[in-house]
Amino acid sequence: MSRYRSQVREVINRNTVVSLALDQGFNAFLPVYDGGVDFILYRESDGLVRKVQLKGRWTIDRKYLDRDIWVAFPIAGDWYVMPHDVMVALAEADGVTKTASWMDGGAYSKPRPSKATIAACAPYRFTSIEAVVAEAADEAEST
Amino acid sequence: MAKKLLRELTDAELSEAHRLWGELVAQTRRNASKFPGPGWASVIDKLEEAGGEYEAEVARRLQPNPPTE
Asked: Are A89 and B50 a contacting pair at CB < 8 A?
């Protein structure tokens, strides 16, 4: 993928996740420099804060360990936002942390997570973007 | 969690998903104590609810004639 196309894809993904979060009452904030957090979600009603790293697939990386970072990633069109360290625990249970990619490279990504992984991650899945967009369109039409 | 998702898993996949879910709950609890803040209670509630769905699906499969929808 060209650099331009990859940047456009990242903006589309970011806007998708931000739209899903807005639907759940969050506001989104962009950092002034790239320090591993792509954006911050904050919900004033209950004080919830999510420091989000956006990925194009299920990904873990040592540099995100122990920082309370949440990873946003898509699987088959659905978006998930999960605590990074919880994903690492899943990876350990899955044997991923014994791979060369993790041990030597310090990172690992799954382009096609197993059905078992998808099912285990399901509680962290967002409502589908289609449902959120349709609801927003319905509301706009009725006002 | 979507029951449909669980129904589509083979017995082996369901067992593996249940095992991974156990790891996920344990680490989520560790994260909740390491990074205190609002929101963890609802996350853990959601995970426990999912655990109930796993158990319900396992119980359904153990019946002699599992009901279908």
From this structure: no
Question: A62 lies in which domain range?
Answer: 3-128
Indicate the residue type of A112: R
Interchain CB distance below 8 Å, A48 and B14: no
Phi-psi region of A15 (alpha: psi -120 to 50; beta: other; left: phi over 0): alpha
A134 in a domain, yes or no?
no
Note the ipTM here.
0.75
User: What are the pLDDT digits (tens) for A99-141?
Assistant: 999 999 999 999 899 998 998 888 899 876 677 677 777 777 7
Q: Is A49 on the interface with B (CB under 8 A)?
A: yes
Q: What is the CATH number of the domain that holds A91?
A: 3.40.1350
A135 part of a folded domain: no
The partner residue sitting opposite A119, judged by closest CB among B5, B34, B47, is B5
